[in-house]
Amino acid sequence: MTSCGRGYAPMARYRAAAAEISAATAAFRGTWADMRHVGSGAAGRRNGGWLWAACTWLGWAMRITALAGGVGGARFLRGLRHHLDRRDDGPHDVTVIGNTGDDITLFGLRVCPDLDTILYTLGGGVHDGQGWGRADESHRVQEELLAYGATPDWFALGDLDLATHIVRSQWLGQGMSLSEVTALLAQRWGLPEQRVRLLPMTDTPVETHVVLAEEEPRAVHFQEWWVRMQAAAPVERFVVAGMDRAVAAPGVLDALREADVVLLPPSNPVVSIGIILGVPGVRDALRGTAAPVVGVSPLIGGRPVRGHADACLTAIGVEPTSAAVAGLYADFLDAWLVDPTDADVAVQRVRVEAHSEPLLMSSVEAAGAIAGAALGLAESIRTSR
Amino acid sequence: MTSCGRGYAPMARYRAAAAEISAATAAFRGTWADMRHVGSGAAGRRNGGWLWAACTWLGWAMRITALAGGVGGARFLRGLRHHLDRRDDGPHDVTVIGNTGDDITLFGLRVCPDLDTILYTLGGGVHDGQGWGRADESHRVQEELLAYGATPDWFALGDLDLATHIVRSQWLGQGMSLSEVTALLAQRWGLPEQRVRLLPMTDTPVETHVVLAEEEPRAVHFQEWWVRMQAAAPVERFVVAGMDRAVAAPGVLDALREADVVLLPPSNPVVSIGIILGVPGVRDALRGTAAPVVGVSPLIGGRPVRGHADACLTAIGVEPTSAAVAGLYADFLDAWLVDPTDADVAVQRVRVEAHSEPLLMSSVEAAGAIAGAALGLAESIRTSR
């Protein structure tokens, strides 16, 4: 199936624009809706090629939807934007569904590490060396907080970064949803201008907790395990507090159902992508979407480039290999991009189209090449259907 | 009446110490309680001299209670501590009842300007030049907040200062009272070591609002009038939102009733002292206390040394003179300290003991001399009773 959106605008502008829709445009949209109908389902899959070409010819945007965690996802998305900016096949709208399981309340402020890493990375404000947090950061406020004996002391919060948490907490406290807050934050970082829309996976507060494999099992917040314990403490299981009552945030399920391409960046398959997949309706939307779903392996030679994906996989009893990770997505994955290191083993074992490409995101250009390869896989699938 | 406290300790230490009270101490306290009884009421007023001398001889602390606003109050209190440290008549416990009508929620954080000014000034962290806020301050967080479009933009919040508001808001959010939070903040600033206890006037959130004298009267928060409008907009009246359900914070009324001396620093008589006097029970406690109540005029030659006390007085229809300010306290004031500039007029018109002393707090030493003069007035009243 090939659906073509008419571009997206952030909420406020969207509302303003919506008020201006003319009768002519409405008629035009009718045509577009018909085309969407034609392009849906199995027939659509087969007819995808001409419809996508038509969208491009008409100047409609290709809709790319990506699930994303923190650093790996953000760097992939920055590469994706870099790649898209250099294509000549019309505008592309990118919808990012961000993991909020990492979210934590520190010093009374709501911190959304993955969403912020994406905002800072796409907005040019990230500390490139560490991949998260702000460039040119200072820690004067946190030193004061510790002087007051405030806790915890194991989570670094820079001054510039704190402003994001303060304003988010202020707006949440005023009754805005996390989606609305995130859209406002994204304006400051120029995401609308980049045609990128960042959606939290859910507006329901959820938090990934880690049940430690100790004699007397106890649970700690994911961040405490990840940051303070450096993911070294043995894990019995991951539990997502609040997920039982979570609802996908507005636009999330539609972004998966109506996408032209769905991408899984090389984010942690357990505590980033895995958490997003646990949001009610997300996995079903991925199974049901007509868009090709292409994933990028987060492992190279069985090891994560950064982070502790191997420890997370081991914790849930999954072998830390590219092939095993693809297995976690087997019910909806159409293609899987692995590093040449893993090509022999992985490509043979994965029951989806696979392709190897150097997966080290050593620069924006390298990340762009990987994103381009993932899109290329998607396009070849679409054309062959 | 002359009561003598046995020193005070911050909450946690107080509780620990309380658990250790021995039978011997309890018996001793019985004696002390008897002495308090002897010293109360009109008889106590007359017998004050010998009892105070006895307290000093026994090494018990003299109890001084002060009401205080922001900069003027804080500088007076620092001078008072400076003066007391140089006396040889035993320890002195100072209880400060701080104005919380200035409190405001900014960026979702609870800001208590007057309490903080007192903490920073007594703790050595204040920006001496401006009299409020932190020395060596920066504004990186607020620049970010403004970049996000957060409001308001007219209230300066430094990075170091923000930490106080963050930790206060965190602790309030955890269910602590403002009194408990203030006691914890005070520990970091070393107030217990100085035998100074800072109490908010109430734990009930109250906020002074200003009804502007415009064609269509509207109310703004006191801070907006004071900071943004520089107290220049004509005032119809001041309203304290929340005061109708306010209760004096724990210890406030007792600190007035059981004091050996009550001092009114040269704080704003309308929006600082005046607000504290509006807390249910405070004015009655001042009328009823056996301690001499000595005030220091906030005006020199009819003008405030700083701030906008004259504008506030005019707004409530009171002449901006030292004598008129004393009139606001006439029902409980025992003595009034005025600047030599005002001696002729003020001292004649004030129906309380009056004394003139240079009132410009140009240094810690100068403030100390003023505090010493106020205490001297109190002592002479006590002795003459």
Low-confidence spans of chain A: 1-48
Identify the most extensive interface between protein chains. A-B, 29 and 29 residues
Write down the Rg of chain A: 21 Å
- Architecture of one domain in chain A, CATH level 2? 3-Layer(aba) Sandwich
Shape designation of chain A? globular
Short description:
2 copies of one chain form a homodimer. With 385 residues, chain A is α/β, with parallel strands linked by helices. Chain A has helices spanning 11-19, 23-38, 41-58, 71-85, 113-123, 140-147, 159-173, 178-188, 222-228, 252-257, 273-277, 282-288, 309-315, 322-328, 340-349, 364-384, and strands at residues 4-5, 61-68, 92-98, 104-106, 109-111, 196-200, 207-212, 219-221, 235-241, 261-264, 293-296, 299-300, 303-304, 335-338, 353-356.
Task: Outline the structure in words.
- The structure is a homodimer of 385-residue chains.
- With 385 residues, chain A is α/β, with parallel strands linked by helices.
- Chain A has a domain of 242 residues: Rossmann fold (3-Layer(aba) Sandwich), CATH 3.40.50.10680.
- In chain A, 45% of the residues lie in helices and 17% in strands.
- In chain A, strands 1, 2, 3, 6, 10, 11, 14 and 15 form an eight-stranded mixed sheet that branches. Chain A has a three-stranded antiparallel sheet with strand order 8-7-9.
- In chain A, α4 links the parallel β2 and β3.
- In chain A, α4 runs parallel beside α5 and α7 packs across α8.
- In chain A, 50% of the residues are buried.
- The interface between A and B is medium-sized, with 29 and 29 residues.
